[in-house]
Write a structure and sequence with these properties.
The chain is built from seven helices and 19 strands. It is mostly beta strands.
């Protein structure tokens, strides 16, 4: 077996082990208490514009990829506006060549107050050869996951918009293989998003400059748990709360700059801390249940899990741990004459919750109906490497509204 195939097997094997027994993955972090979920591909920033701005999107201006970030922004597309967008993200491309994320979206304004959209997110983990215990080939398989969305957005007033999205999630990582000694199956789940967006009036500033601010919030991936076996083990999907703000400064008719801040919080319960036996294993009671030392049981319903995620008493370290679970994203975007954009951003995650810290860079080009965005990620923490580091991501989109109006 080649090194590349061994590496791919480790990646897939790790994913399968997590899906079959989530508690093993949670306890593997030692002193860290990372909140884990199934189908994490749903949380990957799918488009290069947001990817170049530190993965902000709750209150960024309405664009072709609203559904992922905040469906409430779609209502501000504008009359007769529509977008078609395709994004491509290589994944671990320095190690394996065929793991990637693709994102296809279409959005269209129904009138000047409402809009609808559809999207498809597809995550391919490349080809892998399955073998039995004796090393005999069981065939080649392409593990993959996808989500199909439908969304609708409506202006509640001149300045407020609201949106909902419904999502079907499918995750097939094993093609029904037995892992380890347990029959697996594709995981399926349903989710929903709800988002709100506010955009202020333009304010006249000094020297002829103008400014306005925006606010957005969205809860995404609210839905059922997902299972990969007949054992009854179910895992949370990545329900997430996103809150963000933006301030746009129009310097003159050609130059515009926007500043953005998002905070993200997974609405998934934090694993509790268990009492330990003398040999370091989790202590159990007479019925075989683990004995909780601090925090609350995380084997709860999705709704109860959302409540516990915001409850300091449900966490082993209380309020300080709740604060540590917030991920901070900041971004900046400069446009010249709505033709050329330069972007930058940063993400900060606490060390005990994953330690994903990175800078991002991006550029955007737009001419008539065509637009092209690129982004690049630079890790800020060398101890936790990103699958996207040193990877060029791109988004190609078509602005059919510009075609209808003859704008460039």
């Amino acid at each position: 077996m080649t090194i590349r195939m061994k590496l791919r097997s480790i990646i897939i094997g790790s994913l399968v082990a997590f899906f079959v027994n989530q508690s093993m993955a949670q306890n593997a972090f030692g002193d860290y208490n990372v909140v884990t979920t199934a189908v994490p591909f749903l949380m990957i920033s799918p488009d290069a514009r947001a990817g170049g701005m530190g993965d902000v999107g709750a209150a960024s201006s309405s664009d072709a990829n609203n559904i992922h970030w905040n469906a409430g922004k779609m209502a501000f597309l504008g009359k007769d506006q529509s977008y078609l967008s395709l994004s491509y993200t290589p994944w671990l491309n320095r190690l394996v060549p065929d793991i990637n994320l693709a994102y296809l979206t279409y959005q269209k304004a129904i009138n000047d107050k409402s809009a609808f959209g559809m999207s498809l997110k597809y995550f391919s983990l490349g080809d892998i050869n399955f073998t039995d215990n004796d090393g005999n080939s069981q065939g080649t398989f392409n593990p993959n996951e996808f989500a199909i969305d439908g969304a609708y957005s409506l202006k509640l007033s001149e300045r407020w918009g609201a949106g909902i999205a419904l999502r079907y999630i499918y995750s097939n990582l094993t093609q029904g293989q037995s892992v380890p000694g347990l029959q697996t199956k594709p995981g399926q789940a349903f989710g929903a998003d709800i988002g709100f967006y506010y955009k202020s009036r333009r304010q006249n500033l000094k020297n002829g400059q103008k400014g306005y601010w925006s606010f957005g919030t969205a809860i995404t991936n609210m839905g059922s748990k997902i299972s990969y076996s007949e054992s009854g083990q179910e895992n949370f999907i990545p329900t997430n709360l996103r809150i963000g703000g933006r301030y746009d400064l129009e310097i003159d008719e050609y130059n515009r700059v926007g500043f953005m801040l998002d905070i993200n919080k997974l609405l998934v319960p934090t694993p509790p801390e268990y009492y330990k036996t003398d040999n370091g294993r989790d202590s159990t009671d007479a019925d075989g249940n683990k004995v909780i030392k601090a925090g609350k049981d995380d084997n709860v319903s999705p709704i109860q899990g959302m409540v516990q995620a915001l409850d300091p008493n449900a966490k082993p370290n209380g309020m300080s741990e709740l604060i540590d679970e917030i991920v901070w994203n900041v971004g900046i975007e400069y446009w010249y004459s709505d033709i050329f954009a330069v972007r930058g951003g940063y993400q900060h995650e606490h060390e005990s919750k994953g330690n994903r810290k990175y800078f991002t860079l991006g550029i955007g080009l737009k001419y008539n109906v065509f637009g092209l965005d690129f982004s690049y990620l630079i890790p800020a923490n060398q101890s936790v490497r990103s699958p996207l580091e040193n990877t060029l991501r791109f988004t190609l989109y078509f602005d059919f509204g510009a075609l209808a109006t003859g704008e460039e």
